[in-house]
Structures are given as structure tokens and as C-alpha cells.
Amino acid sequence: MVVEKKTTTDFEREVRQTVGEITAEDVFPVQLRVLQIVAMWPAFNGSPQKQMLTKVILNFNSFVLAFCTVGLLLKGIITRDLVDRSEAMDIFTLTGSALYKMVFFYIYHNEMADMMNCGAALIHQVPPKWMQYVTFFTVLHCFMGFICITFWALCPILKLIFGETELNEMTLPINLYDPMEAKGAMFALFYFICHYGLISSAHIYMAADCYLFTAIHLANGGFQTLNGKLEDMKQAIAHKGDTSHDSANEYIKDCIKLHVHILTFIRKTDALFRSLFVADVVHAIISLSFAMLQASESKGIFENLKMTVFVSYCFVHQYLNSYFGQHLIDQQDTLFEKLLLSVPWNDCSRNLRKSYHIMTTGCLKSVRLSAWSVYTLQFATFLEFVKTMISYFMVLRQVQDETEVQIEI
């Protein structure tokens, strides 16, 4: 089998043309449109009116999320009941982290665009049909998040409709601090604000997820191509022997350039998303711990179903982070194994050995997406996260049980 030889000039020309002619807007239009819905991304090629509308939506979303976050924080501080506090804290971290993500994306959208433009240069370096289901899963992920949080927001109305509660006992969808005990039109206004805050928070989370998962999937496609190239080179050397070493050297140089480009893309992604990973982890641990306590104390079919759906999707969200991060690590480990097996490093030309050494150096330590030293996107860390979250829940459960015993006495 003959290795298809591509010159350095051809490779560099292809990358330059890809970067110059194909941008993130061309490759990831759905992901960016999803971001634009909640003003996390400015309208590309938009008129001044569209730019103004984006800023209006950004300011309105910021106000609503800040209002909900402060109201939930005050409720969590003021109330003395642990279950009542849990009903505030599980959503407090959601709205607070969503507000941070939205503002972060808008402020650093130039850096985000540069990251994705770097990724766009890899679009012709991934296997055929590698990206064909990305749009489908983007829409599915956002839709499922929307359904989950909409059910939460409508739960008080459903309880009223099916007779689980009376009109004068109806509560807001989130446990805001409400010293005035709003009624009538004021209650309806607060309900709308809470409902919108929940919907926008979930959409912000789903939009950021889709942006990140698409980037990781693209990088994994680049590694998949590299693995295929090394396998082809192994077969070519096995068939042609020493006469193929010169062409193999040029081939591995081409692989080095692609590898460097992928690593640059991953490092840009890691640098931009580190603080967002921290927000994810803090939200997940605090929110899930309190949400599980709230679920254990919930009464009625709608409350039980609401908490079950919410806790389940929070687990899914954190699992998906770890899944894509683990897949990225596995692809790099596979590349290192392929490199060891594909190149006859102990019996090859000096130039090929030098190129082999350069690429091996870049593969010795896999690049991992992480929140500094707090959290790494991989299955091992996900299991530690689950253990930590369950431990916090057990502590809260024990405190609540002791409180109930003291009240009975």
C-alpha cells in the first residue's frame, strides 16, 4: 500500500485557505444561533438594529438573572428551615452560574470566535461524515433542557389545575425571598420573571454545552484522522521496507503539523473554558446536594417528578462534560500507541527518527480540559464528583433528621 504523499506547501496552503475562507459561522451556524437567542453571541453580519436588539436582550437577561440570583440568595440566608433553604440554593447556583456564562461569552466572544476559527481549519481534516449528527444532537440537547426546566416552571400551575393545591396557596416556581408576599398582578409579574429566569438559565447552559461539545468532537475527529494516517504509514512501510523511509518522513512531518494544529485548538479551548468549568462544578455539587434533599422531602406527584427530572438532567449534563473530555484523552492515548507501533524507530533513517522524536514528544502527555486543579473532564473525576455530591447530601439529610427529632421532642 502506497502512502499518499502531501507536500508541506500543499498542507500549509490548505490550512491557510480553510482559515481565510471558512469561519466558525460557516461550520457551526446552529451552535452560534443557539448562543445568539440569549445574547451570548453578537449577531454576525448584523445591522445596527440587530446589534442594538442583542444588547437589549443581554441587559434584560442580566437583570432577570441577577434579580433571581439575589432573591434566592436572600431566601437561603434568611430562612431557618433547611428544606426551605434547599429549595432556594439548588436554583441559586443555576441562575448565578448562567449569568456568569452569558456575560463571559459576550465579553470574550472575539476570543471564542478565534478558537472556533482555529477549529474550522480542521473541518477538512476529519473523517467523512464525522460532523453529520452534530446539528441533530445540538437541537436535541437544547430541546431536552428546555422541556426539563419548563416542567419545573409550570409545576405550580399544574398542581393548581390537578387539585394538589389551592389558588391562595400557589407558590412561585423558584423560592425567592418575598417579604411583601405578592398577590394578584404583582404575583403574576414575579411568576413571569421567575419563569423567564429558569428558561433562560437552562438555555444558556445548553448553548454553552453545545459550543464546547462541538469543539471537542471536532478535535477528536482530527485525532481520528491522525490515527488513520499512522496506520496507513505502518502498512506502507511493511510492504515497501527501507525504500519507503524517505516518503514516510515527509508523511510524518505532515502529521506533526496537523497534530500541532489540533493541540493549539485544544489549548485555546481549555484556556477559555476553565472558569466556566469551575462554575459548572460549583453549581453541580451545591445544586444537586440540596436538590436531592428537596427531592427526599417533596410531596405529590408533580413535586416528585419535577425533582427527579431536574436531578437526572443535572447528572446527564455533568456526565456529558466528562464523556467528551474522556474521549479526548482516549484519542490522544490511542495516537501515542499508534505512533509507537507504526514507525520502525529502532531501524529507520536519521531524518525519520528525528521526526518521530518530535511527534513522540508532543504525545507523551495528553492535553486535558480542566478547571485548573479543581476538576478535570474525565470519568475518574466524574466518579469523585458523584461521591462528593452524595456525601454532602448525606450530611444535609442527617442534619435535617436531627432537626426533625428535636422538633418532635
UniProtKB/TrEMBL annotation:
Superkingdom of origin organism: Eukaryota
What keywords does the record list, in alphabetical order? Cell membrane, Membrane, Olfaction, Receptor, Sensory transduction, Transducer, Transmembrane, Transmembrane helix
Q: How does it sit in the membrane?
A: Multi-pass membrane protein
Where is this protein chiefly located?
membrane
Pfam short name (any one): 7tm_6
Matches recorded under InterPro entries:
7tm6_olfct_rcpt
Among the GO molecular function terms of this UniProt record, one is:
olfactory receptor activity
One GO BP annotation here? signal transduction
Q: Name one GO cellular component term.
A: plasma membrane
Question: Transmembrane ranges?
Answer: 56-79, 91-109, 130-162, 182-199, 271-293
- Cellular compartment(s): Cell membrane
PANTHER family per record: ODORANT RECEPTOR, ODORANT RECEPTOR 19A-RELATED
Family, similarity comment: Belongs to the insect chemoreceptor superfamily. Heteromeric odorant receptor channel (TC 1.A.69) family.
Q: What is this protein called?
A: Odorant receptor
Name its species: Adelphocoris lineolatus
Source species taxonomy:
Eukaryota, Metazoa, Ecdysozoa, Arthropoda, Hexapoda
